[in-house]
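TEACHING EXERCISE
Course module: macromolecular assemblies
Task: Read the component lines below, then compare them to the predicted structure of the full complex.
Student: A.B.
Group: 4
Components provided:
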Amino acid sequence: MTRPLTSDQAGAAPDAALLVAYGNGDRAAGRELVARLGPRALGYATRMLGDRAEAEDVVQEAMLRLWKQAPAWRQGEAQVGTWLYRVVSNLCIDRIRARRPGPPLDQVPDPADATPAAVDRLADRDRAQALETALLALPERQRQAVVLRHLEGLSNSEIAEVMDINVAAVESLTARGKRALARALSGRREELGYG
Amino acid sequence: MAERPPPPGAPDLEALFGAARRSPPAASDAFLARLAADADAACPAPPARRTRRILRGRLGVLVAAIGGWPAVAGLASAAVAGLWIGMAAPDLVLPPSVDGAAGAGFDLVDLMPGLGDLAVEG
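Instructor-supplied answer key:
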């Protein structure tokens, strides 16, 4: 008989332990997982899709799949975070492929309000917005690798697991993605406040 | 894989990545509440708690001394079986002639039917 975790225990427990506890009927463990994984998954899905409402739908679907998986989850077989990134990735790619082709790189819109006075005051949010706009013009696999590596902070081996490819392929995708980003953003160094 | 130099005029990508990491898309409270409600709705029922019945009174003490209700059931079964064997045994081991047949007795030919023929033939 397992007892529900206290809030202190839940806060210190690894994700896999929380998921097993949830699978045994511990609702507090589920809420802790929502607090930990929900924002990360939403950030990733938003950067992949460029659409907040679609990203929320994707994350909600991915979390439902996680809850269904919980009773059969075995600790040590996979990391919960990596598993979730993988499901979110697949759902995002399904949606991207169902869309019409996106704009070419040279048609990516500039950030809002790029007057010199406003550019001088560009904050992180504006720079992030410029980057995310350029990211959306990348091919989906390059975008996925760059976002996971440089924005979500996953290691190359974790990304390889998420994308179901080898580490060398991850490095290649990341490098090509960064070169494409640099080309898309070339000439905007001063505009983005790095002049 | 060797990094190529960035194109002229390109902003520092690492600085842009850092800015994006510092301002991730924020999850609203309403969205997180929706996820939590989904989690609660999908949560499996906890395993049933085993309850041990507490025996009270003199009967409870007796039952506990024997070993609990399973032991009492075994003892009762043994008692009924013993009673049945005791009452039914005569029919099983004695020939029908015994019960109710006045003056009936056993002859040697009852036990060894070929003995009569052997005696006549010598």
